[in-house]
Write a structure and sequence with these properties.
With 149 residues, the protein is an alpha+beta fold. The protein is globular. It has a seven-stranded antiparallel sheet with strand order 2-1-5-6-7-4-3, sandwiched between helices.
Length: 149
């Protein structure tokens, strides 16, 4: 990957297995530490695509953070402008707004504080105790969307 390409870390088979398990539990109504199933319409196919996510609440506002970077769900979210969050039978439609770089810093800090144990490997050694400058430096690699319900 060169410096002009958006960052994307492709899941390995163990991650796919973990995501499948979390996704199935979430579809059954069992949230794994706040997990939801995100559904977003595909930007090319128009078909609904799903993936498990960890919505984050900061100061009463909910966000979705992409620890792996410019993933398919991120690209689809940018095109669709929103999606659905599901836990069991409960489905919530929402609109989404991508958060600019500087305001991502406290969101990324809170995300890493809560889920570093799960996603820390995707943040190149940056953690919740890193400086604002270090978090800002990785912000372009981790899209963040504000959930506008």
């Amino acid at each position: 990957m060169n410096a002009t390409e958006p960052r994307y870390i492709k899941p390995q088979s163990a991650t796919n297995t973990f995501n499948t398990i979390v996704g199935r539990l979430t579809k059954l109504g069992i949230s794994v530490y706040g997990s939801r199933v995100l559904a977003v319409k595909g930007r090319k196919s128009g078909e609904w695509r799903t993936t498990p996510v960890n919505p984050l609440r900061v100061d009463g506002v909910r966000y979705l953070v992409a620890p792996r970077g410019n993933t398919q769900w991120v690209r689809n979210m940018r095109a669709a402008g929103g999606g659905r969050l599901r836990l069991g039978r409960k489905t919530e439609d929402f609109k989404a707004t991508e958060v600019p770089l500087e305001p991502r810093v406290p969101i990324l800090r809170a995300y890493l504080k809560k889920w570093k144990w799960e996603v820390g490997a995707f943040f190149d050694g940056v953690g919740p105790d890193s400086t604002d400058a270090e978090l800002l430096a990785i912000a372009p690699d981790h899209p963040v969307f504000k959930i506008d319900a």
